[in-house]
Protein 1
Amino acid sequence: GENVEQHPSTLSVQEGDSAVIKCTYSDSASNYFPWYKQELGKRPQLIIDIRSNVGEKKDQRIAVTLNKTAKHFSLHITETQPEDSAVYFCAATPYSGGGADGLTFGKGTHLIIQP
Amino acid sequence: GAVVSQHPSWVICKSGTSVKIECRSLDFQATTMFWYRQFPKQSLMLMATSNEGSKATYEQGVEKDKFLINHASLTLSTLTVTSAHPEDSSFYICSARDRGGNYEQYFGPGTRLTVT
C-alpha cells in the first residue's frame, strides 16, 4: 500500500517569512495529493490539492509543487501570518473513482508562526 | 454546499458497550464514504471504505467484527464500535465523496469517543 513521509514534524518561522513542508510517497499509482490544515479538535480543512497531471498549483499565499519522478510534493506558504499556525497534513491516493481510494496521510507538521 | 455531518460530536461510554456513529452527506449523494481514526497528536489513519449497497472494505489491522460499518443509503453511513474498550478511545472522522463530483473528500466534524 501507499506510504507517505512528511517533514519536518515541527516548523517554527517568523511572521512574514515563508514556510515549506515536504512529503514523499511510495505508490507510483497515486495521482491526487491534497494538503489539509487541522486545528485542535476540528476536522481537516482542505487548503490546496494537486493532481498528477500538473507540476505546480498556486492559490494566493499557498502553492504546491509535485515531482512525479522523485515522488515528492511540497507545500509552500508565503508571507506567513499568526492564523497560519496549525497542524498541516499531506495525503496521497490513487484516485480511480471506483471507491477504493481512501487517503494515506503523512504524520503532520506543527507549524508555529512566531510574532 | 458539500456539507458532511456526524452525530454524536462526542460520546462517553463504559467498557464493553457498543456505540454507533452516524455520518451524513447533507447536500449531495455519496456513493463512497471513508472512516478515519485519529489518536491524540497523531495523524489520520484510514479504517475502512464504505460503498453504498455493498460491504465495507477494511484496512489491514482493523477488525471488521469490532468496527461494523453500514452504508444503507447514498447519504448515510454508520460506524458501530462493538464491545468498546479504553484503547478504542479516539477521534473518529468520516469523509464522503460527491457521487457526481471530483477527487475531493469532504470531512465530517468528527466524533470524540471516550471509553471508561
Protein 2
Amino acid sequence: AQTVTQSQPEMSVQEAETVTLSCTYDTSENNYYLFWYKQPPSRQMILVIRQEAYKQQNATENRFSVNFQKAAKSFSLKISDSQLGDTAMYFCAFRGSGGGADGLTFGKGTHLIIQP
Amino acid sequence: DTGVSQDPRHKITKRGQNVTFRCDPISEHNRLYWYRQTLGQGPEFLTYFQNEAQLEKSRLLSDRFSAERPKGSFSTLEIQRTEQGDSAMYLCASSQPSGINEETQYFGPGTRLLVL
C-alpha cells in the first residue's frame, strides 16, 4: 500500500515570503499522479497543482510550483509571494496507476499560516 | 460547471439511527468517490463508482456503510446504526478519465456528521 508523509504539521511565514511544504511518498509503481490540495478553514478542498510521474518537468501554476524528485520519492510545494488567502491546510495526495479504484492516498496535512 | 454538491451540509443524529448523504458530481464526470475525514487527518478513501458500477468497496469501514449510484449520476452514502466513532466529515469527489484534467478529483463541500 502507498503511504504519504507530510512531516511539517504547521508552518507560519510572513506575507510575501516564499514557503516550501514537504511531502514524501512510498510506492513500488512507476506511473502515478501526485497532487497538492488546499483546504481553507471550514471550506472545501481545492486542487492547487498536479504532477504526472512520467513528466520530468516540474508543474507550475502561477505562484505555486513543485519540486518533483522521482528517485527520492519527494514532492514539495513552493508558494512564492505568499498571501493572506493562502492560509489553509495543505494536503499532499498520491494516486496510483490502478485507475479510479485506487482512490487518493492523503498525507496528514500541513497547516500553513500566513502572517500579515 | 456548478461543481460537486453535497446534501445535507450538516447532520446531527443519535447513536443507533441511520443516516443517508447525497452527492451530485460534476455533470460530465463519470467517476465518483467517497472519503471520510476525521479531525486533524487527511481524507480516507472509502469507495469508488464508474458510472453506476461500484468498482471498489473493500475500503468501506464496516458492513454498516453502503453506497449506491443507481443511474450513474448522483450517489448516496448510508450509515446504518450509527456510532459515535462515525462522527466525521464525509467528502464526495468526481473525476473524468480523459481530457486535460484527467484523473483530477474535484471535491464537494462535505457533510459533517455528529453522532450523539
Protein 3
Amino acid sequence: EAQVTQNPRYLITVTGKKLTVTCSQNMNHEYMSWYRQDPGLGLRQIYYSMNVEVTDKGDVPEGYKVSRKEKRNFPLILESPSPNQTSLYFCASSLGGVRPPTGYTFGSGTRLTVV
Amino acid sequence: EDQVTQSPEALRLQEGESSSLNCSYTVSGLRGLFWYRQDPGKGPEFLFTLYSAGEEKEKERLKATLTKKESFLHITAPKPEDSATYLCAVQAYSGAGSYQLTFGKGTKLSVIP
C-alpha cells in the first residue's frame, strides 16, 4: 500500500530533551515536507526537501532540523524542544523532479506534547 | 507573501442542501491549487489539483473550480459522511527548482441528517 508512515503517533517529552520524529514513504517520491497544525493557525510548513541532500526552510523553521540522506526518509529533529512546539505534526510527500509537486500524500500525524 | 483565505470558517448544512466553499488567494507564480479533506485527528486527504483559471474537476458530490483570484469547492446534495474540514492550499515557485505550499485555515463542514 502506498503510504507515508510517521512514528511515533503520540509523544510526550520534557523541555530540552532531544527527539526525532521519523517519516518514511514507499512511493519513490522526490518531494517531502513537514508541517505543524495548531488550532486557529492551520497547517504551516516547517521544512521541505525537493530531493536527496536538498532541503529548504518553510514558514516556521525555528527550533527544528531536518536531513534527507535517503529518498524515502525525512526525519524531523527537535534538538531542544520547548512547550511552544507542542503541536500536531504531519509529514507529506509528492512526485516532483522537473515538474512541480502534485497530489501530496500525508502521514497520519504525530501529536507531540512538550512539558 | 502568499496568502490563502477560506470562507466560511464553519458551515452547517442539512443533508441534500447544496452549497459552496470559497478559497481566495494571492500568490506570485501559482503552480497549482489543491483541495484536501481532513477528518479529526487524521492527515489531510488529497481531493483535487487545479492549475489554470477555468479549470474544473469533479469527484462524486464534489466539484472544484478555479479563477485567477479564487477557487470554489461545490458540494452537491451532501451526505453526513461529507462532514469534515476542507483545506485549500496554493503552491508557488520559490526559485532554484523549489516550490512552497501555503494552506488556508480550512472550512469545517457539518452535514446534518
Protein 4
Amino acid sequence: ELKVEQNPLFLSMQEGKNYTIYCNYSTTSDRLYWYRQDPGKSLESLFVLLSNGAVKQEGRLMASLDTKARLSTLHITAAVHDLSATYFCAVDRDDKIIFGKGTRLHILP
Amino acid sequence: DTAVSQTPKYLVTQMGNDKSIKCEQNLGHDTMYWYKQDSKKFLKIMFSYNNKELIINETVPNRFSPKSPDKAHLNLHINSLELGDSAVYFCASNGWGTSDNYGYTFGSGTRLTVV
C-alpha cells in the first residue's frame, strides 16, 4: 500500500527565514505533486514533478524530486507572510493520488 | 470559466437525510474523482470514474453512491447521513493522457455539516 509521509506537520517560522518541508513515499510512483491550500479554499497546484532529479521553482518556492530515495522537498526561501497555508505533497499511482497529511505553515511577521 | 465546479458550496442537513453533491468539469478530461477532507485536513480518495465507468471504490460505505451520467459530470449521493459524514468533499478531474499536463484539477469543495 502506498504511503506518503510529510514532515513537519506544523511549522511556525519568522519572515525572511528559509525552511524545507519533506515528503517521503513508500513505493515507486509515476508523478509527485505539491499543492497549496488556504483556509476554506480548494487545492491549488504548485508543482508537478515527473522524473528523478526534477527541480522546479516558482518565486520563493522550489521543489525537487529524488525517486531513488523516494523523497521530495519543498524549499521556502526568505519566507513572507503570504506563504502561510497548508502544503500537501501527493503521489500518483494506479490512476489516483495519495496525499500526505499536509504541513501547516505559519509565517510570523 | 470555472474548470471544475461543484454545487452546493455549503450543505447543512440533519442526520438521516439524503443529499446530493454535483460536479461538472469543462476540461475535456476522462477521469473524475471524489475526495473527502476531514476535520484534521486529511484528504482521502473515495471514488474514481473514467469515461462514466467506476474504476476506484475505496471501501466507502454503500450509503455513498456516485453517478456519472457522462464524462463531464460526477455526482455524489449520500443516503442516511451520519454525523461522521461531516467533511469537505472535493471533486477533481485528471488530464493525463490528454493535451493537459497539469494533472489533477480540484473543485472548490462542498462543506457538508450533519447536525
